């Protein structure tokens, strides 16, 4: 479904000298969605985002927003706004002045500026700290100010480059809930770069997995996690074993692998190489006769009822129906 | 507080000795500037008085200290202003990796390492051969810039090597024009080192002797004046001048620290709970 | 406008100043160095005479040797002192505020006129100066030490006094950028204080040391006034040779000496620059 | 343009570029005179290379020998100089008295005149065109610390006496220093010069060799280049015998330190200074400059300078500005009848004291040579550099 | 069980001026265990570790290793070695020279040094890059070098301060497996500071949870996760709901909460406030009538068979036996 308000990347390419950072990617982002851009380090996520924002020139291709090619416009004219890793709040300005910065640049008068900034600070629940300097804020507070600053330009698309990476895991989980809530309230498209797959699954309406400068797979979290197109996606998204089955590479969910107790029929036999406790489950890693590693996720109660130790041999079983064929 | 190691005390002693060594002449000057009216440039003290400070403000037998001081001061301010503006601009320029930036950079380094008397000689020769009037505000000004600019540039390199580019991107993202980015973001953030460059530029100019020697034209700057004064009976007036200069430097540095402290205060205003979670 | 054009636009004032007040004058010196001078005037001509004399005169060699000697001695002392002071400030002073304050304390004497400071060494080091009197009254010596003033000692002392700051600053600058965890890692690995200093801090301070050395060596090589004042005119370095020539209106010969000095200095710096990328290390 | 708006710029060393003179000019003549004091090298450079940076150059005669050929100075019309006829003979025909011999070196009369306004060559005789108008001159000799030496000194040769090892000094200005050296070598009987003021290469070599040996043996404490240094060397006791300028001796004495400007049997080394006009001077400024020069010779400045121990080019006029005691002490070599004060009010001599060296004629009559620029100057300078570097 | 080779902290305290970073902690670390020190930011983990290593002086108390108090010894004499966050490799030395640094300091001759260094580089599979400079290595490679450098001193205890925090999640999981393997092979005690609870659970033989400068709970991962002593531990370790039940604060595993379909009996009714997809499971967050948030982890198949949307009301059920009482 195409709407006039969507963001489209057309044959978008970025080269640095001879290295290709982004290689001819095409994608349409639907409006008002929360998109997570996911992939290993160096795959071109930041470069893509920065091209959309206008902080990196486009080597080839175009970026269409609302029907016009914005790829040659200055950042502020694009209808996008960016939230930077570690936020890049201006250290010499108060929270309020940071937020009202773009209005000041436009020449808006002081009273209007202050009023509008306070409205946005209210939105992110930071109005009470409007007079603080950024250095006096905690990581989470800084993030909210950065958000308010990005939103004051009334962008159609908000671009976030690893906004949570500087936070500790506890805080990270709380802040991502706030991001999601804000996206829903404002109805703006968020494009959020991360390399945490749990983060992407939890947040996104659409997950875009990049690898080696191209988009490997895009879709809803459930599509991408549930039906990985390639071995890379299956491994990268986690929770899957990739094994050869009938001469074919297939993905097999780790929670679909059962340990065949006693006389139960086993699909393969394998020797246990590692046990990893995960709280409510235990990951049992074992090596099959083919030399492939297979992880079985076992509920903790079941595991501790019949503990397994590394070195033991056991039978693994799964339903044929749970095997998912991968593209070569 | 952590207990201090033995080496700390040794080094503290060394540092104290070093400071003593640094200040030795300054202190000698300070003491001798209070010579009695009959005293000379050397020990022993012949009485104690503020005679020479009064004498400093009266007319000298030779030369015109205050005229020279005014010129040096104005020249210092000129050099300071141009050094700040040009080196900040150049600092910004060098981040753009323009063609020939390497050549310009090494030229600046060369400018720094070329013995100053050569610059003096060369500038003097050029102005002579070109029939240009040699004047402290033209030739000496230029000659001094060849020394203060590379200095300023090096400091700017140090500053911009540590400058987070994302501030600029954020500003551009927020709709700031190139000039607005410089004016509202870059300059305020780099203000303390820029003030440092200004101070440094001023004092390098204020005390520059060799580069001014052949380029100052009809009228002397202060260092030349002091040197000229030594061609006649010199008296502790020049020590009085030295003492005042030192006090003046102290005052400038105090002002500088005050400004930096005030900036810091503004940033700290309102208390802090940084580090605490949300 | 392209990035390069913008770059040039921003750099143009610098380029203009350097072009007008550095490149042209040095070019002029180079040209004049081939001219001839009579007692009274400079005459455009082309002649190797100046160089021929310069390079064959034993004075030249002696004076260059003396110049190198001063540069070397000053370099050694400023390095030792500068490194120690920078090390003290960077690693033994804990708060950044005290570091800045102590550092500024070191810069203040630097702001008093060099000439005045130099004059004031005389009452300090002279035959009847403070130093000798103090030593005599302490009973350390019974005859005043003559070599305190108007000697190589005095020259080097004054050089060290004037130039140590130029060594401290860059070394301090690099040292403050050394990750303190590296020091802890070294200690963890069993390195003693000296070993940490020698195996970790010194190598990592190298860029600062190089930059400081460039400053000090070039300042000393180009000086002409300190040597005259402090040696009581009894020693000469290249700068004095040049300034004498200038004083006697022998511009071509002064220029030729300048060109040789310039080439020497640039060669030395060129070698240093091969080992350190100043632009990155600042 | 009014005369009071005129501003003349004068460069010179601190010796004669005195602010009081400028002030008095303003009072007496109504225009301004800006004085810039420099060290002697810098003055030479200014005069020779930057004619636009000054209107009047206050330089020495030997410097004139180098500066004049650059064409930066303009000759002065003698007919416009009122007191020309009263100028001491030294600066006109070279003779102090009709029967005195002209000393060796760059005697002022040899570089005092040119053939015509544009000429760059010096005239051997008096002409209508003067290069410098003489203002100040003196006969120099060795200064000593009698308290530290404790015996009479009467010869230049004493400078190299090993008795004063590490306590002697000479000037580090080659043109002057070489003359001092020559006086010493001659007095020691080591060298017989054809003309000390114009040595041959061999003579230069010999002279420098003798002094280099002495230097290596540690005879010298230091060399001095500025007035001030010589005073400090002497006053602090670093040096007990050195070639010196008369006012420097006075300066040492005024600190209560005994110091004598010692007349020596071989005679004095003399120097003279004068005012030259920049070639760019013209119109009313030029007229003002002539007015200034005439004023200069009219006595007040002469008296002012004489009170510091120098001599005036026109003593007759200066006499009118001095009282009998001063004139007697400074010029006639008589014992002071009352305290003698310098222009700045400092007592220089008590009643009953005599000036070192006696009367004007005794001193200026015993000039053995003048500061000079020789034909072999370039060679000499190189040898001088060798000496310094040794 | 006390063995001579264990490490014991006795009334260990650290004060910075008036702030107490570590407050009178006592703990015995058994030899040859993998210990994870866990806790929120600023709770005193690094300070504790650095006191053990000798990089921070002890304000009060002692550190006993192998029967002697090492708390006043220099770092190298303690029998401990430290691996630093972001590794602190000497940037001017090659990989080999980094590893052999401590031997050089001891004055060991060159050949022996090189030999020993290569043996350790072999152990961490980095021998082929021995001549590289640290800047030429990837994060994971740097970590291995840092490990080799720490191990060459043959420490009894290896201290690791957030060794994995600089790595991306993909690499982090691989590197933690290597750490674990190495610990098992060398038999050295590892004390590993982290603030990722999944990391701690997966790696540790013993988890020590710190909060507010004290140890909140210590034990095997299963003990700590399965039986959190306090509300803080329950929340911090994740996977638990903390609710009030019969006037008591209790912990309830999220995977033990069932959504009561149709006519099934429900323990409480709640309204759904959030849905978070986690791949093989979906976290359904809802607010009970008491205003407490309860998360139920539902297998994905079950969830998508009967999707739930925010705002709906549903019944939640759990077995009484799964409720875990918390200390006040
Ligand atoms: N300014 C640049 N010059 C040269 N190459 C660059 C530049 N910026 C990025 N690259 C290269 O482009 C590729 C993509 O980089 P990019 O920053 O987009 O990766 P990323 O996916 O954001 O990685 P990460 O997760 O580490 O942030 C990398 O190989 C990188 O080395
Ligand atoms: N040098 C110091 N001076 C003063 N306070 C300090 C110092 N180092 C640490 N602290 C304080 O001690 C407390 C504990 O710090 P520590 O570094 O041990 O925490 P941490 O648990 O390692 O936190 P993180 O997970 O953020 O690394 C903190 O409140 C911190 O602010
Ligand atoms: Mg990135
Ligand atoms: Mg920590």
From TrEMBL, chains A, E:
<feature type="domain" description="ABC transporter">
    <location>
        <begin position="7"/>
        <end position="237"/>
    </location>
</feature>
<dbReference type="GO" id="GO:0043190">
    <property type="term" value="C:ATP-binding cassette (ABC) transporter complex"/>
</dbReference>
<dbReference type="Pfam" id="PF08402">
    <property type="entry name" value="TOBE_2"/>
</dbReference>
<protein>
    <submittedName>
        <fullName>Spermidine/putrescine ABC transporter ATPase</fullName>
    </submittedName>
</protein>
<dbReference type="GO" id="GO:0015697">
    <property type="term" value="P:quaternary ammonium group transport"/>
</dbReference>
<dbReference type="InterPro" id="IPR027417">
    <property type="entry name" value="P-loop_NTPase"/>
</dbReference>
<dbReference type="InterPro" id="IPR008995">
    <property type="entry name" value="Mo/tungstate-bd_C_term_dom"/>
</dbReference>
<dbReference type="GO" id="GO:0022857">
    <property type="term" value="F:transmembrane transporter activity"/>
</dbReference>
<keyword id="KW-0547">Nucleotide-binding</keyword>
<dbReference type="InterPro" id="IPR050093">
    <property type="entry name" value="ABC_SmlMolc_Importer"/>
</dbReference>
<keyword id="KW-0067">ATP-binding</keyword>
<dbReference type="Pfam" id="PF00005">
    <property type="entry name" value="ABC_tran"/>
</dbReference>
<dbReference type="GO" id="GO:0016887">
    <property type="term" value="F:ATP hydrolysis activity"/>
</dbReference>
<dbReference type="InterPro" id="IPR003593">
    <property type="entry name" value="AAA+_ATPase"/>
</dbReference>
<keyword id="KW-0813">Transport</keyword>
TrEMBL record, chain B:
<dbReference type="InterPro" id="IPR000515">
    <property type="entry name" value="MetI-like"/>
</dbReference>
<dbReference type="Pfam" id="PF00528">
    <property type="entry name" value="BPD_transp_1"/>
</dbReference>
<feature type="transmembrane region" description="Helical">
    <location>
        <begin position="73"/>
        <end position="94"/>
    </location>
</feature>
<feature type="transmembrane region" description="Helical">
    <location>
        <begin position="7"/>
        <end position="34"/>
    </location>
</feature>
<feature type="transmembrane region" description="Helical">
    <location>
        <begin position="237"/>
        <end position="263"/>
    </location>
</feature>
<keyword id="KW-1133">Transmembrane helix</keyword>
<feature type="transmembrane region" description="Helical">
    <location>
        <begin position="103"/>
        <end position="127"/>
    </location>
</feature>
<feature type="domain" description="ABC transmembrane type-1">
    <location>
        <begin position="69"/>
        <end position="256"/>
    </location>
</feature>
<feature type="transmembrane region" description="Helical">
    <location>
        <begin position="185"/>
        <end position="206"/>
    </location>
</feature>
<protein>
    <submittedName>
        <fullName>ABC transporter permease</fullName>
    </submittedName>
</protein>
<keyword id="KW-0472">Membrane</keyword>
<keyword id="KW-0813">Transport</keyword>
<dbReference type="GO" id="GO:0055085">
    <property type="term" value="P:transmembrane transport"/>
</dbReference>
<keyword id="KW-1003">Cell membrane</keyword>
<dbReference type="InterPro" id="IPR051789">
    <property type="entry name" value="Bact_Polyamine_Transport"/>
</dbReference>
UniProtKB/TrEMBL annotation, chain C:
<protein>
    <submittedName>
        <fullName>ABC transporter permease</fullName>
    </submittedName>
</protein>
<dbReference type="GO" id="GO:0005886">
    <property type="term" value="C:plasma membrane"/>
</dbReference>
<feature type="transmembrane region" description="Helical">
    <location>
        <begin position="147"/>
        <end position="172"/>
    </location>
</feature>
<feature type="transmembrane region" description="Helical">
    <location>
        <begin position="251"/>
        <end position="276"/>
    </location>
</feature>
<dbReference type="InterPro" id="IPR035906">
    <property type="entry name" value="MetI-like_sf"/>
</dbReference>
<keyword id="KW-0813">Transport</keyword>
<comment type="similarity">
    <text>Belongs to the binding-protein-dependent transport system permease family. CysTW subfamily.</text>
</comment>
<dbReference type="GO" id="GO:0055085">
    <property type="term" value="P:transmembrane transport"/>
</dbReference>
<feature type="transmembrane region" description="Helical">
    <location>
        <begin position="70"/>
        <end position="90"/>
    </location>
</feature>
<dbReference type="Pfam" id="PF00528">
    <property type="entry name" value="BPD_transp_1"/>
</dbReference>
<feature type="transmembrane region" description="Helical">
    <location>
        <begin position="7"/>
        <end position="35"/>
    </location>
</feature>
<keyword id="KW-0812">Transmembrane</keyword>
<feature type="domain" description="ABC transmembrane type-1">
    <location>
        <begin position="64"/>
        <end position="272"/>
    </location>
</feature>
<keyword id="KW-1003">Cell membrane</keyword>
<dbReference type="InterPro" id="IPR000515">
    <property type="entry name" value="MetI-like"/>
</dbReference>
């Amino acid at each position: 479904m195409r709407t006039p308000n969507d963001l489209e990347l057309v044959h978008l390419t970025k080269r640095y000298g001879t290295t290709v950072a982004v290689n001819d990617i095409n994608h349409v982002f639907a409006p008002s969605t929360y998109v997570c851009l996911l992939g290993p380090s160096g795959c071109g996520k930041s470069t893509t985002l920065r091209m959309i924002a206008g902080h990196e020139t486009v080597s080839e291709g175009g970026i269409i927003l609302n029907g016009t090619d914005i790829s040659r416009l200055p950042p502020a004219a694009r209808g996008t706004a960016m939230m930077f890793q570690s936020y890049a709040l201006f250290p010499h300005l108060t929270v309020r002045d940071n937020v009202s910065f773009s209005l000041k640049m436009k020449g808006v008068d002081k009273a209007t500026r202050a009023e509008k900034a306070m409205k946005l600070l209210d939105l992110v629940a930071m109005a009470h700290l409007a007079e603080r300097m950024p250095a006096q804020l905690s990581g989470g507070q800084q993030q909210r100010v950065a958000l308010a600053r990005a939103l004051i330009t009334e962008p159609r698309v908000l671009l976030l480059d690893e906004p949570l990476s500087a936070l500790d895991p506890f805080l990270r989980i709380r802040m991502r809930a706030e991001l999601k809530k804000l996206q829903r309230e404002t109805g703006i498209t968020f494009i959020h770069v991360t390399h945490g797959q749990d983060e992407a699954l939890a947040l996104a309406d659409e997950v875009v997995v990049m690898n080696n400068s191209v988009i490997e797979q895009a879709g809803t979290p459930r599509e991408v996690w549930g039906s990985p197109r390639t071995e890379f996606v299956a491994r990268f998204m986690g929770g899957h074993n990739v094994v050869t089955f009938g001469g074919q590479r297939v993905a097999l969910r780790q929670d679909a692998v059962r340990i065949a107790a006693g006389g139960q029929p086993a699909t393969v036999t394998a020797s246990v190489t590692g046990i990893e406790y995960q709280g409510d489950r235990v990951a049992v890693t074992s090596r099959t006769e083919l030399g492939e590693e297979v992880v079985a996720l076992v509920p903790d109660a079941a595991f501790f009822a019949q503990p397994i130790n590394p070195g033991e041999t056991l039978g693994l079983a799964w339903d044929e129906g749970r095997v998912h064929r991968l593209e070569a | 507080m952590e207990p201090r190691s033995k080496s700390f005390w040794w080094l503290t002693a060394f540092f104290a000795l070093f400071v003593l060594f640094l200040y030795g002449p300054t202190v000698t000057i300070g003491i001798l500037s209070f010579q009695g009216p009959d005293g000379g440039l050397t020990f022993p003290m012949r009485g104690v008085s503020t005679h020479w400070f009064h004498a400093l403000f009266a007319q000298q037998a030779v030369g015109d200290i205050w005229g020279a001081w005014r010129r040096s001061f104005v020249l210092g301010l000129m050099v300071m202003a141009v050094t700040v503006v040009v080196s900040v601009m150049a600092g910004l320029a060098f981040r753009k990796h323009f063609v020939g930036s390497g050549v310009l950079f090494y030229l600046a380094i060369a400018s720094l390492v070329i013995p100053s008397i050569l610059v003096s000689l060369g500038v003097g020769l050029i102005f002579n051969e070109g029939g240009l009037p040699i004047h402290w505000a033209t030739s000496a000004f230029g000659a001094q810039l060849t020394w203060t600019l590379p200095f300023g540039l090096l400091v700017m390199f140090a500053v911009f090597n540590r400058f987070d580019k994302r501030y600029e991107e954020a500003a551009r993202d927020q709709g700031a024009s190139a000039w607005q980015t410089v004016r509202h973001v870059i300059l305020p953030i780099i203000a303390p080192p820029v003030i440092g460059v200004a101070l440094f530029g001023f004092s390098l100019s204020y005390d520059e002797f060799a580069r001014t020697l052949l380029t100052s034209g009809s009228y002397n700057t202060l260092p030349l004046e002091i040197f000229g004064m030594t061609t006649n009976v010199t008296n502790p007036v020049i020590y009085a001048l030295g003492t005042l200069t030192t006090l003046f430097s102290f005052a400038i540095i105090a002002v500088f620290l005050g400004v930096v402290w005030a900036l810091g205060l503004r940033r700290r205003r309102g208390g802090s709970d940084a580090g605490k979670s949300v | 406008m392209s990035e390069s054009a913008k770059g040039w636009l921003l750099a143009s004032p610098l380029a203009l100043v350097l072009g007008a007040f550095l490149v042209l004058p040095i070019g002029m010196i180079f040209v004049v160095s081939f001219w001839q001078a009579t007692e009274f005037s400079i005459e455009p001509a082309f002649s190797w005479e100046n160089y021929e004399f310069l390079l064959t005169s034993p004075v030249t060699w002696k004076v260059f040797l003396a110049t190198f000697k001063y540069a070397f001695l000053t370099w050694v002392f400023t390095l030792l002192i500068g490194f120690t002071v920078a090390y003290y400030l960077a690693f033994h002073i804990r708060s950044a505020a005290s570091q800045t304050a102590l550092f500024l304390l070191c810069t203040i004497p630097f702001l008093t006129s060099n000439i005045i400071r130099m004059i004031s060494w005389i009452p300090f080091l002279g035959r009847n100066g403070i130093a000798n009197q103090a030593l005599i009254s302490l009973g350390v010596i019974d005859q005043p030490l003559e070599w305190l003033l108007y000697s190589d000692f005095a020259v080097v002392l004054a050089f060290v006094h004037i130039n140590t700051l130029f060594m401290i600053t860059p070394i301090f600058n690099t040292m403050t950028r050394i990750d303190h965890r590296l020091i802890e890692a070294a200690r963890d690995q069993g390195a003693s204080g000296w070993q940490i200093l020698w195996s970790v801090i010194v190598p990592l301070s190298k860029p600062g040391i190089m930059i400081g050395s460039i400053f000090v060596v070039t300042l000393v090589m180009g000086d002409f006034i300190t040597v005259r004042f402090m040696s009581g005119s009894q020693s000469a370095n290249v700068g004095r040779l040049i300034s004498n020539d200038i004083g006697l209106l022998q511009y071509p010969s002064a220029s030729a000496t300048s060109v040789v000095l310039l080439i020497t200095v640039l060669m030395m710096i060129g070698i240093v620059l091969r080992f350190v990328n100043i632009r990155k290390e600042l | 343009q009014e005369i009071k708006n005129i501003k003349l710029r004068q460069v010179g060393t601190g010796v004669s570029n005195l602010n009081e003179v400028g002030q008095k000019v303003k009072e007496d003549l109504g225009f301004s005179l800006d004085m810039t004091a420099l060290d002697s090298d810098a003055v030479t450079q200014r005069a020779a290379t930057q004619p636009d940076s000054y209107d009047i150059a206050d330089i020495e005669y030997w410097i004139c020998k180098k500066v004049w050929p650059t064409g930066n100075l303009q000759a002065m019309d003698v007919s416009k100089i009122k007191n020309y006829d009263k100028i001491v003979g030294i600066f006109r025909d070279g003779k102090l008295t009709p029967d005195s011999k002209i000393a060796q070196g760059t005697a002022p009369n040899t570089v005092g005149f040119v053939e015509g306004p544009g000429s760059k060559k010096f005239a051997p005789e008096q002409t209508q065109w003067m290069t410098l108008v003489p203002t100040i001159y003196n006969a120099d000799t060795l200064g000593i610390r009698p308290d530290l030496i404790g015996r009479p000194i009467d010869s230049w040769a004493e400078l190299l006496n090993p008795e004063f090892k590490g306590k002697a000094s000479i000037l580090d200005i080659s043109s002057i220093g070489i003359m001092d050296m020559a006086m010493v070598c001659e007095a020691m009987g080591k060298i017989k010069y054809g003309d000390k003021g114009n040595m041959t290469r061999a003579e230069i070599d010999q002279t420098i060799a003798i002094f280099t040996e002495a230097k290596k043996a540690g005879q010298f404490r230091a060399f001095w280049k500025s007035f001030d240094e010589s005073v400090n060397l002497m006053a602090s006791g670093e040096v007990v015998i050195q070639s010196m300028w008369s006012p420097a001796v006075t300066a040492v004495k005024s600190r209560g330190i005994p110091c004598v400007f010692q007349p020596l049997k071989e005679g004095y080394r003399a120097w003279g200074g004068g005012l030259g006009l920049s070639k760019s001077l013209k119109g009313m400024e030029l007229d003002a400059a002539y007015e200034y020069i005439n004023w200069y010779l009219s006595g007040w400045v002469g008296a002012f300078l004489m009170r510091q121990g120098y001599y005036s080019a026109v003593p007759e006029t200066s006499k009118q500005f001095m009282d009998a005691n001063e004139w007697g002490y400074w010029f006639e070599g008589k014992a002071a009848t009352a305290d003698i004060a310098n222009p700045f009010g400092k007592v220089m001599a008590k009643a009953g004291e005599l000036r070192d060296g006696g009367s004007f004629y005794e001193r200026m009559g015993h000039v053995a040579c003048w500061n000079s620029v020789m034909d072999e100057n370039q060679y000499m300078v190189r040898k001088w550099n060798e000496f310094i570097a040794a």
